[in-house]
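User: For my dataset I need records formatted as: sequence, then structure tokens, nothing else. Please produce one.
Assistant:
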Amino acid sequence: SLAKGSIIMAKEKVVIKKLNAIQDLGAIDILCTDKTGTLTQDEIVLEYPLDIHGDLDMAVLRRAYLNSYFQTGLKNLMDRAIISRTEKEAKEYPILQNLDTNFQKIDELPFDFERRRMSVIVKDDSHVVSMVTKGALEEMLTISTYVEYRGEIIPLTEDIRQEVLAEVAQLNRQGLRVLGVGYKSGLQEDYAYAVTDESDMILTGYLAFLDPPKPSAAPAIKALLEHGVKTKILTGDNEKVTQAICEKVGLDVEEILLGADIDQMSDEQLAEAVEKVTVFAKLSPDQKARIILQLKNNGHGVGYMGDGINDAPSMKVADVGISVDTAVDIAKETADVILLDKDLMVLETGIVEGRKVYANMTKYIKMTVSSNFGNIFSLLVASIFLPFLPMSPVHLIVLNLVYDLSCVALPFDNVDQDFLKQPHTWEAKSITRFMVWMGPISSVFDILTFIFLYFVIVPLMTGHDYVHGSESALQFIIFFQTGWFIESMWSQTMVIHMLRTAKVPFVQSRPAWLVILMTLVAAFFVTSLPYGPLVHILRLAPLGLPYFLFLICIIFLYMFSVTLIKNFYIKKYKEWL
């Protein structure tokens, strides 16, 4: 089932790294994901390089280029958008030309998720050393003492700060992501720069990026919800941009929880909050992981979808880590599932297939466990009352071999649509409960078979009763064992159709044609053995019409009884598979 599921999911652009993750994927009821690339098109464009008053300013783009071009870390989508826009505008604006050759990198302060900014130290051809910093606007304001406007440097007053925040808030409400850009010059070249040197900066302006929502995001979120999976957004972006995007794709944004608020919450408070809140913003990687762990503690199956370095901790603690083939290496290594297309629709297909795999695995396990339990119970009862074994060891081996071969068709079986609508988790007690309920039913009919074979059918076919030690005793035993051998095969294979669905088989739920074919082939193959060349090796005997009339009646009654018990079981436990 797992192997077949992985092949089908690969055709649907879902690559399974760990086979067990197929069932885990189908069991999730909450999907946590960042919004970038999942809800949005993952094609970030730099719309506006703006000065502090919101006017277009290429000097801001110039400094942003120096920061993005000379950094040695992994260039993200915004870095690539900055470089692309600069190369395009360089044809018209001389101040953007030859920046890669006119400047030399001296040092760098890499990005981290606490500072939410990064800096490069560069030297121009006049040997002037400058630190250029870009990052989240709030963090840039905390390290800036001055602002630059039309070449003039003035102190950063509270009025200017509020003007900048108001302008940025307006951009955020339009769904634009904003980064601040700052610098300071006249620095030393031979100096070991540290994070503490990011101070007394000159805020020169900000950059507004557009990453529009995917047309498929809203239908995908709706489809996931129809299959019992809620989508929660865990993002490092600010709440206004997140709200604008989430509103467009139909997510609940009445309440947005910020990372700073989460740090102030106890585990009990967070446990309550994660159930109500759909969107979490301005999160660090540790805060994302804490939310996922709390959802798991609340009893949810949680999948996390991410593609960046900062997503690895969340993917590790989630029940299923999901990444994409364009993700960074550490994200792909951590993931259990890799999507070849960063689209929630693809993931929804994977979840449905995971539930099909789980359903067909569960069918086989529950059927086989209950059947084996019934057979062993029947043998135990027979050993008390019968003076011989009701079935020889070779018969048991052949019976199990043919039954298992017939069950090879189960991975290809149809699964009821109702079952696919909700997630299902693996529970050992459910298997035990199923075995205890269904196993003894087969034993009841096995015992009825013993009675009829011993007192009616075999004496009728052999012409004498069983007499221990007599010459006819061996013939009596062979006929008896053949009778239960065939009855066991028919009961095991035919009951598959009753147990594979909670509905009425063939009427409300149709099995796959391969399941029908394999079960019939298995039953007829075993029935034909007493009439074939293996009859002496297996020590079987051909049976007459009275036996087969009895077999039809006993199988019909058995299937009818299973249907009645199945209805009681479903009413009591509200589940079947």
